[in-house]
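User: Thanks for the earlier help. One more: Antitoxin. Can you show the sequence and predicted structure together?

Assistant: Of course, both are below.
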Amino acid sequence: MSAGGLVRVLRRYHMTIHAKARYENHVLKPMQDLPLHEGEAVIIEIKRSITDQMCGLFATDPKTTEFIIDMDHSMS
């Protein structure tokens, strides 16, 4: 196998996908289509959004809350 062929094989099996998901009814549901085969096993890493992590820690007015949420969405 050529070096280029090996790189293509390794990329296929060592792919990282960043996707948002929502947890509903004890199931993690992707918010977009994923390039995976039915039944394919994957390893996931969970990162909560900053707005979820900060929820309830301090009181803010609605305008500030919306600003923080918009900032969080623009960074992801």
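User: Great, one quick takeaway?

Assistant: The radius of gyration is 18 Å.
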